[in-house]
Prior knowledge:
This protein has 12 helices and 8 strands. The protein is of the alpha/beta class and 292 residues long.
Amino acid sequence: xxxxxxxxxxxxxxxxxxxxxxxxxxxxxxxxxxxxxxxxxxxxxxxxxxxxxxxxxxxxxxxxxxxxxxxxxxxxxxxxxxxxxxxxxxxxxxxxxxxxxxxxxxxxxxxxxxxxxxxxxxxxxxxxxxxxxxxxxxxxxxxxxxxxxxxxxxxxxxxxxxxxxxxxxxxxxxxxxxxxxxxxxxxxxxxxxxxxxxxxxxxxxxxxxxxxxxxxxxxxxxxxxxxxxxxxxxxxxxxxxxxxxxxxxxxxxxxxxxxxxxxxxxxxxxxxxxxxxxxxxxxxxxxxxxxx
Length: 292
């Protein structure tokens, strides 16, 4: 089972919004050197809503090929069309990814039975490990714990990214799914709490800018060194909060640009970080030790 700090990696872009694959490959190297436990490519943080189908596949291919087995790669392959989700998942499987992450179908607001059948259809169509992704604040649909438990009975559905931020729900879920079913926090602020309750890691935005600390925090949590884990998380809490002062990935792309790791390209309808947030985000980065 894959555990630890799994970075929801950004998609570097040039100022005109075109893909910057060279810097994407450099970020992969940066995470490998920093101890990141896995890379999630073309998730929400990777601007999946605004890359087209061919670009989506190109990003999966670029990260998978450059990682070359040095770090597990999880491909975001969700869609609100079941047929498209199957096609993306099939493509990712051919690239040799560790697993695929599938967001709940957004906008069309399926029922719980519709969600179950959607995920079952993808799992039956593509023999690759698959991770459910529940983020109702963005998708306007909530994958209920009862449905997750049903889906956990399907052999190649191996886990869930729970971005609800609800500790009550997470506790309930951990008590009901099989022990080999991974539960990942999808909210950096509650990621440590999820792990201390028995979760298996966090799919993290913060790990983009503080990968070594995020890895260390997870490592300490899994080792039972709670005091050390809490101390490290204390250094990161400003990032957990300030990286969401505007819609993700606006702040994290600004932070990486300040670190000299990417250019400042981002695609409409997202825009560059407002000047009013620069000072507070820079201060959070300084407290985490990632910026002088």
